[in-house]
Structures are given as structure tokens and as C-alpha cells.
Amino acid sequence: MRKFEPTGRAARRLGLLFIVAFAAACSDGTGPETGSPDFARGGQQGPDLHAAMAAQSRHQAEIMARNGVEGIGVGLTDDGKAGAVVIMTANAAVGGLPRTLD
User: Fold this and answer.
1) CA proximity to 93, closest of 65, 61, 67
2) What's the pTM?
3) H/E element holding 70?
4) How many CB atoms sit inside 10 A of residue 74's CB?
5) pLDDT in tens, 45-77
6) Hey, how many other C-beta atoms are within 10 angstroms of the C-beta on 56?
7) How are beta strands 69-76 and 83-89 bridged, if at all?
8) Phi and psi at residue 62, to the nearest 5°
9) Residues 74, 57: contact at Cβ < 8 Å?
10) CA Rg value for the chain
11) Does residue 33 sit in helix, strand or coil?
12) pLDDT, tens only, 16-51
């Protein structure tokens, strides 16, 4: 009996189908009910996270105008206890960025 081994285009389609099926199986079909995102670690948005989102909003245009800055976002500190503004750069040599905002 000949073994089925998809190659090329068929293999990519089969892989994509597997990924989509896996994602659908892992989803419970629910999503956030409000326009504001729920974050990991309990889905709580404490005052620190709201403050980081406000700082991002106030400083985004100024920071994005700098050469080498690729993006700006909001996340949690390494210990997960406070909100933080995250600045993504094209490389580590981008300088003149603030260490803190507000």
C-alpha cells in the first residue's frame, strides 16, 4: 500500500487547514464584551494599566516621530504587577528615548 505524503502546495494547504481547525477547537467562541481589552493575569485592568494606556496616548505621536521607532504599546512589567509603556525599535542603537513617561 502506498503511503500518502503531501508535498508542495497540498502540504501547505493541509498545514493551514490543521492550524485553522486547531484554533477553532481551542476557542470557546466568546470575546470581550466591551471596547476595552481584557488583559492576562485575571483580566483585571487596574489603575496602573489605565495610567500606562493614558501615557501611551499622550506621548505616542512624539515617540513614533523619532527615527528608528517601530511601535509603541502597553503591557505589564516583568513581575506582572504594574502597567508599562513599551517602545519597540528597529535596533538597540536607537537612542534618546525616555526611560519613564509621566
Assistant:
1) 67
2) 0.53
3) strand 69-76
4) 19
5) 555 788 888 999 999 999 999 999 999 998 888
6) 19
7) antiparallel
8) -65, -45
9) no
10) 21
11) coil
12) 766 776 676 666 555 555 455 555 545 555 557 888
Query: Any idea which residue has 534618546 for its cell?
Result: 96
DSSP state of 12: H
Long-range contacts of 34-40 (CB under 8 A, 24+ apart): 39/76, 40/76
Collapse the DSSP code of 81 into the 3-class scheme (helix H, G, I; strand E, B; otherwise coil) and give the result: coil
* Cell (9 digits) for 61: 505621536
The whole-angstrom separation of Cα 49 and Cα 2 is: 58
Q: What is the pLDDT of residue 5?
A: 56
What single-letter amino acid sits at 11?
A
Residues 18 and 8: their CA atoms lie apart, in Å, by: 16
